[in-house]
């Protein structure tokens, strides 16, 4: 369904407007996303650029999953969590990017309220699971470095599976009521423009024709549970890790231990830093387009960075991928 952008209402509740009354009576509320640019040439460039990043994200994370599940040497707790993180990144970006790409080119397409709610729910669930899983990975590194002799006894396959399932279950428990709370609010108008490229919670709340203080407070509390608490647990883990690393006698051992942690820390700082900038600021202090720019980081940069740093900085994964490419090249030459 295509339409003229001039009929878009931006959430104001001026019920005396004849056009608004007509739109309210013409059908259910639908949302559209604000365009990045009106220039056709730049639209084509953005489409190609974001499509390239999306394909790289899919290929990079799929390669990690394949490497872990086809090689016995990589079937350890650390790589089990890494493969689950890669799977989450694939699902996470697929929830957002295809719809974003479809709206870059040509006229904007509306998304029904149910579709917007569905995207918001999956985004919140997968994003929260991602944050919890990063905390789980920090605990895994803590046990591996601080208690190496007990590592296999503590990080059993059953515990690893339970921790991943617990991260997903907690994310579902938090995301479902929050999404339901947002979409029980009234929205005035037929077509509402979201100042974003997906149905994120803060920009959708700005379009509601009701007092949003309760949903904002709930969002703030959930953001603390999803961002602040896991980040503090990660910091505590790395304090103990740093103390242990400093007591390692050999420089090579310290370097190896630091290398396994620095990759994880890079992803953590980007993920939690960008999330905090978006969800901990008062809505009135947020510039119109800043959240969209920040969201591009955790939509494209972090999912792409994950396979890059874990392959370029990890000898085991690099060796497995090199062997696989060598075998493929040899079979093609036969």
Index terms:
mainly alpha, Rhopdopsin 7-helix transmembrane proteins, 11 helices, 3 strands, 3% strand
Largest sheet: 3 strands, mixed
Number of strands: 3
Q: Termini separation (Å)?
A: 52 Å
Into how many domains do the coordinates divide? 1
CATH class term: Mainly Alpha
- Total of DSSP H or I helical runs spanning 4+ residues: 11
Share of residues in helices: over 70%
As a whole number of angstroms, the C-alpha radius of gyration is 23 Å
Shape: globular
Structural class by sheet pairing and helices: mainly alpha
> What's the CATH H-level homologous superfamily?
Rhodopsin 7-helix transmembrane proteins
CATH topology assignment = Rhopdopsin 7-helix transmembrane proteins
Architecture, according to CATH?
Up-down Bundle
Q: What is the spatial order of strands in the main beta sheet? A: 2-1-3
Strand content: under 5%
Q: What string gives the helices and strands in order?
A: HEHHEHHHEHHHHH
Averaged pLDDT: 82
- Low-confidence spans: 1-25
Describe the model.
It is built from eleven helices and three strands; from the N terminus they run αβααβαααβααααα. The chain is mainly α and 334 residues long. α2 packs parallel to α10, α3 packs antiparallel against α10 and α4 (113-146) packs parallel to α8. It is globular, with a radius of gyration of 23 Å. It has a single domain (6-320), classed as Up-down Bundle (Rhopdopsin 7-helix transmembrane proteins), CATH 1.20.1070. The chain has helices at residues 18-26, 40-70, 77-104, 113-146, 151-154, 157-182, 201-205, 213-246, 251-279, 290-312, 315-333, and strands spanning 30-33, 111-112, 191-194. It has a three-stranded mixed β-sheet.
């Amino acid at each position: 369904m295509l339409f003229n952008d001039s009929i878009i209402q931006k959430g104001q509740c001026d019920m005396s407007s004849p056009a608004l009354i007509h739109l309210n009576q013409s059908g259910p509320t639908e949302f559209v996303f604000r365009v990045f640019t009106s220039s056709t040439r730049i639209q084509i460039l953005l489409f190609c650029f974001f499509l390239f990043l999306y394909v790289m994200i899919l290929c990079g994370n799929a390669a990690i999953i394949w490497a872990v599940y086809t090689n016995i040497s990589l079937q350890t707790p650390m790589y089990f969590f890494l493969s689950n993180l890669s799977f989450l990144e694939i699902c996470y970006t697929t929830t957002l990017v295809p719809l974003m790409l479809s709206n870059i080119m040509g006229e904007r397409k509306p998304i029904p309220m149910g579709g917007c709610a569905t995207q918001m729910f999956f985004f919140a669930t997968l994003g929260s699971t991602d944050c919890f899983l990063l905390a789980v990975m920090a605990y895994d590194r803590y046990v591996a470095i601080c208690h190496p002799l007990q590592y296999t006894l503590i990080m059993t396959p059953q515990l690893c599976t339970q921790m991943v399932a617990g991260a997903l279950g907690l994310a579902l428990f938090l995301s479902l009521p929050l999404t339901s709370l947002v979409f029980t609010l009234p929205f005035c108008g037929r077509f509402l423009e979201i100042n974003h490229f997906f149905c994120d919670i803060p920009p959708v709340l700005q379009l509601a024709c009701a007092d949003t203080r309760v949903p904002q407070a709930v969002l703030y509390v959930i953001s603390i549970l999803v961002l602040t608490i896991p980040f503090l647990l990660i910091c505590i883990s790395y304090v103990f890790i740093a103390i242990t690393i400093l007591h390692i006698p050999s420089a090579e051992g310290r370097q190896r231990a630091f290398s396994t942690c620095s990759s994880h820390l890079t992803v953590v700082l980007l993920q939690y830093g960008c999330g905090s900038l978006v969800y901990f600021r008062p809505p009135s202090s947020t510039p119109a387009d800043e959240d969209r720019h920040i969201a591009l980081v955790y939509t494209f940069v972090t999912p792409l960075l994950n396979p890059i740093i874990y392959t370029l900085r990890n000898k085991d994964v690099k060796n497995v991928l090199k062997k696989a490419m060598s075998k493929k090249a040899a079979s093609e030459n036969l």
